[in-house]
Write a structure and sequence with these properties.
Blueprint lengths: L2 E5 L2 E4 L12 E3 L23 E6 L9 E8 L5 E9 L7 E3 L3 E3 L4 E7 L15 E6 L3 E5 L8 H18 E5 L4 E3 L6 E10 L5 E8 L4 E3 L11 E9 L5 E9 L5 H4 L8 E6 L4 E5 L4 H15 L1
C-alpha cells in the first residue's frame, strides 16, 4: 500500500509513505503540501506524516444499497477540511466523486458516506483493491492506493453484487408488492409472496431458502417445537420452467420496545441461491419500501 501527495501540479512520493502489511489503516502524509512562499492554512498547519488514517468500510444499513464508508481519522493537532473525494481502483469499472465538504476535527474520526462505483465482476478477488483521492481546502491533493478493509467489506460487496447480476441474468426474483394478513392482534401473521420470472437466458437458478432477520422469522408450524429459523424454498427456475412463486408466513422475531424503533436491517431478508449446481450464495431479497413498511405494521399489530 502506498500513498502520495500532489499540490498544484507537482507530484512526489512522501518519505515514509509505504505502509507495512501489519498496519490496519493507510497513513496519508500531509507534510510538504504547499509551494514555496504560499501560506499554510490553519487546517493543515503542523501536519505530520501520520495525520490521516483511512479505511474502507460498509455499515450494516448500507448492505442493500450501492453505498459504503471511507473512515478518516485525524491524528494531528489541527482540523483538516476535505472538499472532494474520488473512489476508484481495480475493484470497480469507473470512478465515483463526492463533492461535499467535510471537516475532520483534530483527534477525531469521521465516516464519509460515498456512492460505490460499478463493481467489476471480471476482476479476480485477490487483485481487487480500492484507491482513494482526497482534495483539501488548501488545494492539496492526496492519494492512497489499496485502502485497508479491516472488516472484509469489499469481498462481501463484490460477492453480493456479482451474485445478484448472475441471478438477474436467469430470472427476475423479488418479493411481490404488498402482504396479506392472517389473524388479528397477537395472532397476526403476515404472508409474503416471492416470485421468480425467468428471462429466457441459459442457466438454472435454485432458490434454496430465505433466512430470518433480527425482526422477522417464520411463523410457528402446527407441529409445535422450536420455531424454524428460515423458510425452505426449493424453487428451480430456468428458461423452460415458467414463472414460479411461493408464499411465506411471517411473525416477529422479537417484540421488545426497541425492535422497531432502532431497526435498520429487519426487512433485509438473506436469500440463499444456487446457480448451475454451483456453491450456495446469499443475496438480499429485493423488497419495495411499501411492502417493508407493511411488514413492520404487521409486527406492530402482533406486538401491541
Amino acid at each position: 500500500m502506498t500513498v502520495g501527495t500532489r499540490h498544484r501540479g507537482d507530484e512526489r512520493r512522501v518519505p515514509g509513505s509505504r505502509v507495512i502489511a501489519s498496519c490496519v489503516a493507510v497513513v496519508i502524509a500531509l507534510s510538504g503540501c504547499t509551494t514555496a512562499g504560499s501560506p499554510v492554512p490553519t487546517a493543515t498547519r503542523a501536519a505530520s506524516a501520520e495525520d490521516l488514517v483511512v479505511e474502507f468500510r460498509q455499515n450494516r444499513d448500507q448492505y442493500a444499497s450501492d453505498a459504503a464508508i471511507v473512515r478518516v481519522g485525524n491524528r494531528g493537532d489541527h482540523d483538516i477540511t476535505i472538499v472532494g473525494l474520488e473512489l476508484a481502483g481495480s475493484a470497480f469499472t469507473a470512478t465515483t466523486v463526492r463533492d461535499r465538504s467535510s471537516t475532520i476535527r483534530a483527534g477525531q474520526t469521521t465516516d464519509l458516506a460515498v456512492e460505490l462505483p460499478p463493481i467489476d465482476c471480471d476482476a479476480r478477488d485477490g487483485e481487487s483493491q480500492v484507491d482513494l483521492l482526497l482534495r483539501l481546502d488548501d488545494g492539496a491533493v492526496l492519494s492512497a492506493a489499496d485502502l485497508p478493509d479491516p472488516t472484509d467489506a469489499l469481498p462481501r460487496i463484490r460477492a453480493a453484487t456479482c451474485t445478484v447480476a448472475a441471478v438477474q441474468r436467469i430470472a427476475e426474483v423479488a418479493a411481490a408488492p404488498g402482504i396479506r394478513l392472517e389473524g388479528a392482534g397477537a395472532t397476526t401473521v403476515a404472508v409474503l409472496t416471492i416470485t421468480a420470472v425467468p428471462t429466457g437466458a441459459p442457466g438454472r437458478l435454485e432458490l434454496v431458502a430465505l433466512r430470518s432477520t433480527v425482526l422477522l422469522r417464520p411463523a410457528p408450524t402446527d407441529g409445535g417445537g422450536d420455531p424454524p429459523q428460515d423458510w425452505p424454498l426449493s424453487l428451480t427456475v430456468d428458461a423452460a420452467s415458467g414463472p414460479q412463486s411461493i408464499e411465506l408466513r411471517i411473525v416477529p422475531t422479537r417484540c421488545d420496545p426497541h425492535a422497531l424503533a432502532e431497526d435498520k436491517v429487519g426487512t433485509l431478508f438473506p436469500l440463499v441461491v444456487r446457480i448451475d449446481d454451483g456453491p450456495e450464495a446469499v443475496i438480499t431479497l429485493p423488497l419495495d419500501a411499501d411492502t417493508a413498511e407493511a411488514l413492520k405494521d404487521a409486527v406492530r399489530a402482533r406486538c401491541a
